[in-house]
Amino acid sequence: MNTYLAIKYLHMSCAVLSIAGFTVRGALRLADAAILRQRWLRIAPHCVDTLLLISALWLVLQSRQYPFVAPWLTAKLVALVVYIILGIVTMRLAQRTSTRLGAYLLALLTASYIVAVALTRNPWPCAGPG
Asked: Rounded to whole angstroms, how far apart are CA atoms 108 and 20?
């Protein structure tokens, strides 16, 4: 297997782990579960997300497809910023359960959009072939 494919698979694996981890941690946050105070649950997501970001940067440099040049990468980057903000609202900022739930559901929807854009390489993945 060549290096590009290995990094791509690392990136995809980290994306799956990151989204699955957020899904579980968000549900635990909604339930106000005490387990979220465990150190490993606070550290592990940052490790996975750091690997995800490093692999993404490596792929961008190797493929020579850059945000603000390739529309699909721009869409992923903008959606990623939205996802991060919604994640912060879900996990830290929201005081009311209804606000937390809304941010959580929107974050999951945004993550789905990011995956769809990645798979189709189209900023409008539901619109069909470009």
From this structure: 10
Q: What is the pLDDT of residues 76-107, one digit of tens each?
A: 999 999 999 999 999 999 999 999 999 999 99
Distance separating alpha carbons of residues 78 and 112, to the nearest angstrom: 14
Q: What is the DSSP string of 66-107?
A: -TTTSHHHHHHHHHHHHHHHHHHIIIII--SHHHHHHHHHHH
Residues of the chain short of pLDDT 50, as ranges, are none
The 10 Å Cβ neighbour count of residue 28 is 15
Give the chain's count of helices (H) and strands (E): 4, 0
- Please list, in sequence order, all residues whose beta carbon lies within 8 angstroms of the beta carbon of residue 110, skipping any fewer than 6 positions away: 79, 82, 83, 86
Looking at residue 1, its pLDDT comes to 72
Predicted TM-score (pTM) of the model is 0.91
List C-alpha distances in Å: 129 to 15, 78, 121, 125, 126. 24, 21, 10, 8, 9
